[in-house]
Each structure stands twice: as C-alpha cells, then as structure tokens.
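Box 3.1. Reading complex inputs
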Amino acid sequence: MSSEKTEVDFDVAEINKDYERLYGFHTNTDYLKNSKKGVSPDIIREISKIKNEPDWMLEFRLSSLEIFNSMPDPTWMDGSVFDEINYEDLYYYASAGDKKYNDWDDVPEDIKDTFERLGVPEAERKFLAGVSAQFESEVVYHHVQEELEKKGVIFLDFDTGVQKHGDLIRKYIGKLVPQGDNKFAALNSACWSGGSFVYIPPGVKVEIPLQAYFRINAESIGQFERTIIIADKGASVHYIEGCTAPTYSKTAFHTGVIELFAEEDAYLRYTTIQNWSTNVLNLVTQRAIAKKNATVEWMDGNLGAKTTMKYPAVYLAEPGARGRVVSIGYANKGQRQDAGAKMIHAAPHTTSSITAKSISHNGGRSSYRGLIKVNKGASHVKTDVECDALLLDDFSESDTYPTIDVRERKDVSVMHEATVGKVSDETIYYLRSRGIKEEDALLMVVNGFIQEFTRELPMEYAVELNRLIALEMEGSIG
Amino acid sequence: MIQSLQQKKLSELNAVELLRELKKADPSHYVSQERMGHVERALELPLPGAPDEAWRRVPMDSLGFESRPIVAPLLEARLEGKLVGTGSGNGSGLPAGLSVARVPGELDGATYDAFKAFRERYSLLFEQRRRKNKGRANDVRENKFLSFAEALAGDNLFVRSERGTRHDTPLHLSVHNTTPGSVGPAVVCIHVCENSRLSVVVDYQGTESNTVTIPVIKAVVAKGGELRILRAEKIADDSYLFSHEFVLVEEDAKLNSDAVFFGSKATMLEGLYSLMGRNARADVRGLVSVRGTQFSGQKLTMEHNAEHTYSDTTVKTVLYDAAHSLFAGTIKIPAGSRHSEGYEENRNLLLGDDAHADSIPQLEIVENEVKCSHGATMTSTVPEEVYYLQSRGLPEAVAERILVGAFYREILDQMELVKEDEATRTFVATALREETGLELDPSAMV
C-alpha cells in the first residue's frame, strides 16, 4: 500500500467515520502489538506450534505457503482490488482471547443502542461486543451441545477439530478447495485460524440451526476462517455463520475457505450474512459437493466490507443432486459487492437454481458473477438463474457477468434472466397515496425485493436483516 | 495491403521497417498517429486470449498467425450482381448519392474531403464514447488482430451515402482471403450521412482452404440516418475469420444489423455498437449455425451513451455434431443515459451430442432510470413439443425438423435484408441446405 493517500483512502476514512456514527465500534488493538506482521515459514511454524498441531497440518500449511508465494493475482478482476493488499503488513495470527471490552458497563452507549435498534438478543450483545467469549445463557447452549453430542454430532471450532478428529479432517481438508485453487485459498490454507468443524452422522437430522456462537470456547470469527461441514448419508443440517450485527475488524483483510460435503440423501444448508466494517476486503472461497439425491443450499447475504468477492459453488456430482443459492448484496457508498454463484452439473438428473438480488446505493457497486456448467454426459439437467438489481440512485452501479457453458444436449434446460432497474415512481406514488411516508414506502419496496432471501432465514435473523437494511437506508430520501 | 509487404510474415517484420513502408506507400494524411500506434500493437500484443472471457475460448492452437504470409484479400463491391467501379454516379454503376472509393489509392479532391470528414467525425465520436465509458476490468480494449488489420490493410473501401439519399437495394461488399495458408487484413469504412439510408450486405464467403481473413468495419450513422447491414459468412472448415466492427450511431439514427454465420475452424465477430445521440436505436440480430467441429463466436458490446436510446440484441445459435459456439454480449449504460432501454437475448439449440455452447450475457449499468434485461437459454428440442407434433401423426424425425426449422425462421423472418435481397435469401437457403440438410423455401421468407 502506498503511503500517499488517494481519493479512495479518504473515502474509506469518511465511511469509517460514518460507521462509527452508526455503529460506534472501536477496537482495542493492543493485542496485535505482540504479534508479528507478514507471513513466512517461521511464522507459520509458530502458529502451528501455538496451536499444538500434528505434523501433517504443519506440512499442509507450509506447502500451501509455497503455493501462495508462487501464485499470481487473479486476472479476471481489476488488479486495483488486489493492489491494495500488502501481505507484509498483515497480522496472520492474533490471539483468540482478545476482548474488546472487559465489562458490559464499559461498552459505549451507542453500541448498546445499535444492538437495541437491531433487536440483537441480550445474550448475543455481550458476545458481539466482546465482553464475553461465550453467551451468558451458557446453560441453554450447553444443553444444545449435549443434545447434539448424544446424537453423535461433532460441532467444534476448527482448531479443536484438528486436535480431536485429525484423521477425519485430514481426509476432507482441501478436497473441494485445493491449496492451489486460488491465491487466497492458498493463503488461507497456510495460515487459517478459527472456523468450524461439523460432522453429522448418517441419518441424523439436526432440528435447530447450528450457529457458530453455540460452540463452547468459540474463537471469534477469524480473518482466516476454515470451515468443513460434513453431512453423512441421510443427515440433515442447517448451519449459520456470521451475523447481521456489524463486525468491526481493524485488520482489513478476511479470506475464508468453506467446504461442504453432502453425502447421499443428505440435506445441508449454509447461511451466512456478513456485515464487516467497510474497510475490509472479504475474499472467501465457498464450495460444496452434493452426492446422490443430496441437496446443498447456500444462503448468502453480503452487506458489509469494502470489497466482497464471494461465489458459493455446488458441484453436483451424482444423479439426483440439487443445488440452490439465494443471495443478496447491498452495496453502499464506497462498497463493492462482487458476488454470485457457481453450479457445476457433473451428473445426469441434477437440478440447480440461483437467485441473486443486489441493491446499489450511494454510489456503491454490486456485481453478479456466476457460472453454470453442464458437463458432457450430464443429461436431464434443469437449471435457472435469476439475477435482479435495484439501483436506488443514478450514480450507483450494477454489473452482471454470468457465464454459461453447456456440453450436453439431452433434455438439458438452462435459463438465465437478469433485470436492472429502479424503484418506479408509480410504486412509490401508490404507496404514498395509501398514506405511507416516502421513506417507509421505499423501504417496503426494498424489503419486498429481497424477500426471497429473508424468508429463508430463521425469524430473528430476518427481523434483524430488515432492521439493518432500514439503518443502511437512513437518509436515502431527500 | 501495402504492396511492398506482400507475402511477408509478421514474424519477419519490425516496427521501424513497417512504419517506413507505410509512409512510402501512403504519403497522404491517411498515415495517422492512430495507425502508427496500431503498428506497435500488431507486433507486440500476444494473440487475443485471457483475461478476455470471450477471446480466451476461441480455438487458435493451430493458427500459426505470425508465420503466415500477409496478402491482400479480395475486396470488391457489387450492386444487383454487377461489379461496380469506384467513384460515384455515372460510369461507376452506382446510383447518385452513393459512392465507393479505394483508400488510400483514390483519395483525391472530393473523395479526400469526404473521407477526411468521415475520419474526423469517427474520431470525435470515438473519443466522446471513450470519455463516457470508464474502464472496467472486463474491458479488453486492445486486440492484436484489430491492430494488425488497422496497421497493414492498404487498399480499403470507403462507402458513403450522401445526405438525404435512400439506397434500399443493398450494396454487396465481398471480403475474403483467396490465398490458402495466408492472412489477409481489410478495412471497410461506411459513412451514412444525415437523413440518408444505406443498405449493405457484407459477404464473407469463400471456399479456399486454410485462410485467415481479418476485416474491420468502421461506420458512422449520422443524425436521422439509417444503416441496414447484413453480414453473411460461409468459409471453408479449416479457415478463420476474425472480424471487428465499430458502429457509431448519432441522434435519431438507426442501426439495423443482421448477421448470418455458418462457422469455420474459428469465426469470431467482435462488434461495438455505440448509441451516441438521443433517440438513437440499434437492432442487432444474429443467426449462427455450426456443425462438425466448427467454432463460431460473437462478442457484442452495446453502449448507450445518450439519453432515450434503445437497443435490442438477439442471437440464436444452432449447434450440430461437436460444434462450439460462443455468445458474449454486454450492455453498458453509463451515468446520464436516462430513459434508455437495452435488451439482450441469446437462444441456443443444441442438437449435436458433443456440441458445446458458451453464453456470457453481461450488463454494466450506472444509471437507474433505465429498463434493461437479458436472457439466455440452452435447450435441445423440447420433448413435449416433439410429442405434440407426433400426436398429430408426424414421424419423430419430421417433427424435429419442423421445430428446428421454426427456430431458424423465427430470427430469419426478422431480418429485413434477408427478406428483401434475393441474393442473400438464396445464400441462406443454399447454405442451410448444404450445412444442415434443412429445406427452407427462400420465397416463403418474404
């Protein structure tokens, strides 16, 4: 990063000022002082040693680092996005024990106020503010954990997973996102930290959504999270990561790798809503495999971060597999939401659908970038893509970059549709004629626009998301 | 093609030598800064490919571009089957108000002024659109083939229709390389002056084996004008066609662009259509039919650079055997182009067991007061539709043929020049019969 301040830097500074006004987050960065900057084999060895990892993991990390060092930046996106990253200036490991505040009383009023406005449950507030690493109502969650254990479900943070179920992780890690898949996956493989490891045994149906917070001794969401979720034959699980509440990160760089394995007849849903502060580069590789008659669903909400690049993928490997992605992106001032989805039909009788909704506002830029691939031999395939973009003013941007690649003809049906537009004056006028304020009318339309996403969320998340959108849109009229 | 460079290979040339030859061959002002810039790019750029999402899919493994001798391709104009001379009016075989000139050979007097006016207008509009469109990651503005043609094409054609004149009988421009093993660059410039209407059919048709043709078409459609242009391509299975087109459409002007392409080893059409003035309109239609191991690709960019502009792009592709097709269409609406409407549609019919279709329909929108959408489908014949026809007593094969025929007809019936021009109608019917065995009655296309 050059020391000279560009226009963009000032923009970011301004955004963060706004961010502070809205959410009031500051982060105590003292804990970073003892960590070393930059990435090198020595630092990797140190991380591995601190975590007391088995040798194979250290080797995995070191070989990943070599791959990372030899890989160029992706070429399909503006180089400017990657130019901003100074790998030497990043902290690759920060202790999990960092607490932002020691006492709930120390938490500034405006944060408490934000939580209040978002309707974040009491228990979660303290966790989010960093007052406690666990929820107050630990008993409830402990009960959940016990129930899960009884069923044989493994639900751990990834570090503990490596300690306790090393063989299982070794079997699965990097199978869907190989170390050399892309530069950021390589970096994550080298210095991952945090994330979840979930294993659902055959036939087990987990009724309640698993949330990252449920993990006892949970490490806070790290900048290099690594997650593996395995739903064995006939198992069913819904996993929720992230939260609607703002997550402030000083480190400005987040790259995760998430691998989902849905075995025969399994059902796996992964819901994530990211609301990183608007200085963060959020580059995540998310990939899933669906075996015979299995279903994988990605519910993907992108609200925060300066730049998001995230394309959840489903590899439909065996007949009867289904893949579905529903995503929303909200690009506000200075933000770029480059999201999308990929579906690879590698077997006959597979179906997939992608619904992507994006909203650009205050000069934000949202893009849909997707891939539908139908391999030779994958007959009887049905897939449809719908991406809709809403531009809330006349200087925001929206792009659509889908790619469709079909190599089979037998009963293959691929549909892609995209529209871009604004909220029509007639719609607003109609609502106003019913006595609704203009602001509320616009909000209603926007909430209606993303309804396909919100209705897939657990109720409390849906409510929070709607409130968050309202908060983001404050002052958008006049 | 510059005479002294005839039969030379790109790999044998260097920039200094090239520039010297260009200046010698053309002491007029035609050797512009722009052309000199192209010399360097033609020599230095790699073959088009990644990160360009469209060009990286074009098969060029056995092209051997730099080691092919450079030749002048056949470039001639016909009206109603008769070869027309250059110049205008009496003696040339051209109606009043329509002129064709060789560039730079025949640039003198009035022709020189006309060409200069075209170039100035073209450059001005091009610069305007460049300023309107801020750079995007996916834009790859430079292309070796384009620069190659711009730098080396010599004896080019300049077509101009005068203010207020109408030319509904299409002028046929034949562009194709007749020398096997070689590469032929060509440039055609078209100026449709104010309130004029011009119809042009560009024939990329030839049977010569293993040729590479690199044509560039540059056109300005001035205020209130209309350009109707149809490109008809059918070249040998082992030949290549890499064409570039730039059409700048001014206020109240219309572009009616049709293309009928039958594939080759690799056929690529890269088109940039820019709507530069209020009420400018572009209707772009394409029909691509590929069989065997042919490849045919279209990379079309539609720019709405003014308010109240309208565009509609439809490309339909039929794929037989192990053919490969590509459609990469982009609609760009920059800030300020309010009340614009842009539509884009790509329909692919996969009939071959090993066929491979790529579709990349893109939108880049920075204005909210617009209507914009795109759609793409890839299907084979729909079993229900076949079944319906079978239930009416038709054998399956006949039912299939009717449905495929309907797919072709749907787009062909919208192409004005196919309907009006008998030569084109016959070409389409013959090519369809030869390539696909499909009998479409040309007279029924009227």
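In summary: Chain A has three domains: 1-286, 311-422, 424-478.
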